[in-house]
Amino acid sequence: MTILIGAIAVFGILAVFFFLKMFHCLGRRKIVRAGASGVSCCVTAGLCGAGVVLLFTVLSYAQLVEEKLVSRIEFRRISPQEFQARLMVPGEQDRFFVLRGDEWQMDAKILTWSPPATILGMEPMYQLDRLSGRYAEVDREVSEVRTVHSLAPAVPVDIWRLARRFPVVAPGVDAYYGTATYVPMADGALYEVWLSRDALIARPGNDRAREAVGNWGEN
């Protein structure tokens, strides 16, 4: 990250230098040198801008070095097959969502890096993406209204989507989903969501959740 910030600063300074040099050459009627400085200014300014966009996107992700606890989620039954989910993410305010169905799932966007991105000191990163509910019965899954909530902040350019759609434009970036297996919702159930380098893992956090998972596994 420090190397990326340093690269942005260097390209920014170079862009300003070439911009001032261009006007200096124009004042002395050195058109060729002014043109060369103008081109250099555009190139360095473009690299600086690209670095800023990359930094802005990277800051919306959290680093993933090893398996870590990324959130807790607690359920309160509102009505049959309708629950209020309280999402607790470390360092953020709790958020509340309504989920319909029998089970819930959380997805995350994961970024891993290879050369040349690793040269900038980039570590694997993640961003919670969505929280969804599902009905256990296929007929109800087809006919009933499903609930899906976005967990990701809005950013002007998302390098994860860019790497998925246009891998040539984002060399050194591997983008994929980490998805937790659907697990049952139950009144008073608390789950912990852990993230490894390639998957989300939902684990019961209290007796009510353990009971729900146990009963669910037997059905």
Descriptive report:
The protein contains five helices and eleven strands. With 219 residues, the chain is α+β, with helices and mostly antiparallel strands. It has two domains: 2-59; 62-218, no CATH class. Strands 1, 5, 6, 7, 8 and 9 form a six-stranded antiparallel beta sheet that branches. It has a five-stranded antiparallel beta sheet with strand order 4-3-2-10-11. The longest helix is centred in the N-terminal third of the chain and has 29 residues, at 31-59. It is elongated, with a radius of gyration of 24 Å.
If you compute it from the alpha carbons, what radius of gyration comes out, rounded to the nearest whole angstrom? 24 Å
Low-confidence residue ranges: none
Instruction: Classify the beta-strand content into a percent band.
Output: 25-35%
The N- and C-terminal alpha carbons lie at a distance of: 48 Å
What is the percent of helical residues? 25-40%
User: Which secondary-structure class do the elements indicate?
Assistant: alpha+beta
> What global shape is seen?
elongated
Following the backbone from N to C, one meets helices and strands in this order, namely HHEEEEEEHEHEEEEH
How many separate domains make up the residues? Answer: 2
| Mean pLDDT rating | 80
Major sheet summary line: 6 strands, antiparallel
Tally the beta strands: 11
